[in-house]
Amino acid sequence: CETMRALRRRLDFDPEVSVVRDIKDSELRIYTDAGRVCRPLFIVERNEKGLQRLKIKKRNTQQLSNKADDYRWSNLTMDGLVELIDTEEEETTMVAMAPMDVLTSDNDEVGRNFTHCE
Questions:
Q1: What is the number of other CB atoms lying within 10 angstroms of the CB of residue 114?
Q2: By the 8 A CB rule, do 104 and 83 touch?
Q3: How far does CA 75 lie from the centroid of its chain?
Q4: What share of the chain is helix, strand, coil (3-state, %, to 5)?
Q5: Helical H runs in 31-104?
Q6: What contacts 91, CB < 8 A, 6 or more positions away?
């Protein structure tokens, strides 16, 4: 499943394809049907120190706001910073409600492992 997500993030296949791993049924489900509602979420990964961080950086948001740059929303997907997640795949993700949740999660006693952020 992680390999499939990595391939999607590199755009080896369409970003709107959903990959769901069902542990209970020992299945890997791939959804490609039209009409599924997908929402964009920022990708969270661990850095070299093992801390969870948003993959998108301030320079990316500055490029979006700079009209002279030819950097668009689609570039965030192409650069592997934003991922389109449907309702089936959302069941297997841990979504932080805010970037601050990701930053403070490393100090939590609970030890939340976020995969995405709104």
A1: 20
A2: no
A3: 14
A4: 30, 25, 45
A5: 58-65, 73-78, 87-90, 99-104
A6: 20
Report pLDDT digits (tens) over 2-26: 788 888 888 888 888 888 888 888 9
Tokens 């650069």 correspond to: 79
pTM: 0.83
Q: Give me the phi and psi of 28, to 5 degrees please.
A: -115, 115
Tokens representing 46 are 């661990």
> How far is Cα 54 from Cα 4, in angstroms, rounded to an integer?
20
Under 8 Å between Cβ of 82 and 44: no
Per-residue burial over 58-81, b = 16 or more CB atoms within 10 Å of its CB, e = otherwise: eebeebeeeeeeebeeeebbeebb
Beta-carbon count within 10 A of 42 CB:
19
